[in-house]
Design brief:
CAP_sf; mainly alpha; 155 residues; 4 helices; Pathogenesis-related Protein p14a; globular; signal
């Protein structure tokens, strides 16, 4: 059985930082929301402090890295994408989004390890490809990392 997980970084993150997010999506829960949000904010904090690993050494510190917060409307759009399994990002307009489709037994009962693996993969791209001291992205190889690490992103 194949169950897709569309992990849409930044497309899920925006306004709400309470313990209960208040989202009406029964396909997810606050523990999963915390996983996404905390993973990204912890990694963004490491970037801001110049502690995030690069291919060689560490990334330059960010000067204005914003903290992310959750957006239930974006979560709904992501869940709609999961239900249709379209693989397209058209519903997200100008929002940056990353996707990953995964399948296998155990995914629906405990998606946490799969989500963690995907998040680490997106953030780990910079360690594989590397970002130069000028902080310019060398083409599409860092697309997923760029979406989750852009300093002005708050949603």
């Amino acid at each position: 059985m194949r169950i897709p997980i569309a992990v849409l970084a930044l497309g899920l993150l925006s306004l709400s930082d309470a313990a209960s997010y208040g989202c009406q999506n029964s396909e997810s829960n606050d523990e999963i929301r915390d996983l996404f949000l905390n993973f990204h904010n912890n990694a963004r904090r490491r970037v801001a402090k110049g502690e995030e690993p690069n291919k060689q050494g560490k990334l330059n510190p960010a000067k204005n890295m914003q903290k992310l917060s959750w957006n239930c409307e974006m979560e709904k759009k992501a869940q709609d994408q999961i239900k249709t399994c379209s693989g397209g990002l058209g519903a997200f307009g100008s929002w940056g989004a990353n996707t990953m489709t995964m399948g296998g037994s155990g995914l629906s009962s405990n998606p946490r390890p799969f989500i963690e693996r995907v998040l680490k993969m997106w953030w780990g791209k910079v360690q594989q490809v590397g970002l130069g001291p000028d902080n310019k992205y060398p083409g599409g190889a860092l697309y997923t990392f760029g979406n989750v690490s852009k300093c002005e992103t708050v949603t």
